[in-house]
Amino acid sequence: MPSVPSIRTPESSSASPSTTPRQPSERHRCSRPSWGPMWQGVVTTWWPTVPFSTPTPSTYEPSRYEHLVPDMTGKHSGSLPVASLPRFFSPSAASTYDKCPRRWKHRYVDKLPDPPGVSALVGTFSHRVLELLCGEKPSLRTVDRARELARQVWPSISAHRDYRALNLGAEAERKFRWRSWNAIEGLWGLEDPALVDVRSTEQSLTSEVAGVPFRGIVDRIDNVNAGLAITDYKSGKAPVPSRRSKALSQVLLYAAAVEADTGERPVQVRLLYLGQEAVEETVTEEGLNEATGGLASSWASLETDCSSGRFEVRPGPLCGWCPYVEICREGRSEVVRRVEAGRMRKDAPAREALGI
Question: What does the domain layout of the chain look like in residue ranges?
Fold first, then answer.
């Protein structure tokens, strides 16, 4: 049987996370600006009492980047400089493009900052701890061991510039830690990790999927009775039943990439919404075709946009959470309209950014 090339397996992982510096994974390089040596210098401390220095202000200053986006308020603001296609298309990049092509351009072509918020950093923290946990021998995958790993990882989180840029007060920091821990501990409500036959963790995938140069990182590839299972952790809210098919497209793309790399088709895909529920699906030809067809369609549309220089704006409720709302005429108008109609959440960052 062809084997999946492993980045990290329980058998091969013998170094302690507290003594071996870890470079940022492809997940972080693909999905957001480079984390730098985020995991280096991890030390053991009691959870979670590590103080940090004066917060660094956010690097996102819209006025600094307006000159990169021509005709911001003009009649033809949708016409932007011609862009080159990316070397690879990741699920996160495809999702960003599908939601709003203009936002994709600002992030991946203009390279404007897109700093992670609290939810994204909670996900980073919990994912890292669970990655380390599943690299342990099965008998060591306990809640107590997860707590130890969380203590070891915490200093690198709290000291990182993206976390410090959040400028959290003592109470907000306490809530951040508890939210992260609840996500980590929530794994045991979905499965017993000691019983999981982990094939690899943080598996890098680079292949051609439906004619698209694809790159992604799988949280876990497991051995199950019938073959391989693709498992991905989610720290956000589980989707309603009507949106589960869309949510599963990411792990189905991973399954397609594994098959393209190894010739072995995974038999199951799983989304573990930590502390909530597991969303699972058997891999079928129909499901793979739907997911890969969507990726190919997005890629074809992106090719057209890169050739023409026109990247459509798709205003909607997510404008309230877009880091580029201050340099997007349509986005600003959408936020104002929704605020006036009472249809924009009070915690939407765009309200503060626009002073409304």
Answer: 26-58+115-191
